[in-house]
Design a protein that fits this description.
Elements: H1 3-8, E1 28-31, E2 33-36, H2 48-61, E3 71-77, E4 88-93, E5 97-98, E6 103-104, E7 109-116, E8 124-126, E9 137-139, H3 146-163, E10 172-177, H4 185-195, E11 197-198, H5 245-261, E12 263-266, E13 273-275
Antiparallel strand pairs: 1-7, 1-11, 2-7, 2-10, 3-4, 4-7, 5-6, 8-9, 12-13
The structure holds flavin-adenine dinucleotide.
């Protein structure tokens, strides 16, 4: 974060590291909500009494709907030919929801959701107050880059194409969202901009690297400050193309080994441990 921004918030900077808070990346997701008939979907399971029964069954028998993580299918796809690696990730849920899952549709249906695996847009997070309990400002800049809109648009077309296949003829009813009236490229882009959501994979705001905006070096030491490391998802220079939890655990294990390699004193029997970066 730039020193002047810190000063404006009432914090006197010890060291000016302009990359702190920059380079925010996330996996943005859009959905198709497809109604079904004649197939058992999870929508029947979300009534409170069924959910309570499912939880009871899970507690006693470790089985039933509550024992399942909910994702039926997971896959990756290329938004165009010639890519070195896929740039769209698909999940398939056997229910349909809105607003980050706060509102679950009671109708039978399934919902492929697809996210940008390699987003190009970059946002930032920054301090607003010297009060450490005050929330920071988060400016994600989702879909700022046209390429991100193109990729997620292709993701939606691929999902619709799969749903239209003959194998699903018996089960398909109408499309709840975007809906049959959303057909042109402009309408699809508008739907994506109105409804796309985060899948909660924010990373990158203390990136590892050697350029002027990098915050930590390749041993996760904060540039210009002794004995301080950042060891979490924020050090990713570029977001992982799949889910972020496993890569973050890898970062944590690697970071822990860096700390252990450079320790000054370890008292085996006690707990005193002094790490030197
Ligand atoms: C709703 C949701 C669903 C997700 N689903 C998936 C998924 O299905 N698969 C997947 O791979 N990833 C998923 N993720 C992403 C994954 O959880 C994150 O990428 C990962 O946890 C990042 O790890 P982290 O250590 O960087 O941050 P965190 O896991 O957020 O850890 C930060 C820690 O710091 C602590 N902390 C915060 N402030 C302070 C303070 N002032 N003092 C002391 N401690 C503090 C917090 O309590 C927390 O324990 C999901 C995330 C969310 C939010």
């Amino acid at each position: 974060m730039r020193a002047d921004r810190l000063r404006r918030a009432g914090v006197e900077p010890l060291h000016d590291l302009p990359g702190v808070g920059e380079n925010l990346q996330d996996h943005l997701v859009a959905t198709v909500k497809q109604g079904t008939r004649g197939a058992r979907m999870l929508s029947a399971e979300v009534a409170w009494w069924r959910a309570a029964m499912s939880l009871g069954r899970y507690a006693l028998l470790r089985s039933g709907p509550a024992a399942h993580h909910g994702i039926q299918v997971l896959g990756f796809a290329d938004s165009r030919p010639g890519l070195a690696a896929p740039d769209i990730q698909y999940h398939l849920l056997l229910l349909m929801y809105d607003n980050h899952g706060r509102s679950i549709d009671g109708a039978d249906g399934f919902m492929p959701y697809f996210n940008l695996s390699r987003p190009q847009s970059r946002g930032r997070v920054f301090i607003r107050s010297a009060d450490p309990t005050a929330a920071p400002a988060i400016q994600p800049n989702y879909l700022q880059e046209g390429e991100d809109v193109r990729v997620i648009h292709e993701g939606l077309k691929i999902a619709r194409d799969i749903i239209a296949r003959r194998a699903l003829d018996t089960y398909r009813s109408h499309e709840f969202a975007p809906g049959a009236d959303i057909a042109s490229d402009a309408e699809i882009d508008g739907y994506i901009r109105r409804t796309a959501e985060s899948v909660y994979h924010p990373v990158g705001t203390c990136k590892m690297g050697s350029d002027l905006l990098s915050v930590v070096d390749d041993r996760l030491r904060v540039r210009g400050i002794d004995r301080l490391r950042v060891i979490d998802a924020s050090i990713m220079p570029t977001i992982s193309s799949g889910n972020t939890n496993a890569p973050t655990i890898m970062i944590a294990e690697r970071g822990a080994s860096f700390v252990m390699e450079q320790h000054d004193t370890v008292e085996a029997a006690g707990t005193r441990f002094v790490a030197r970066a």
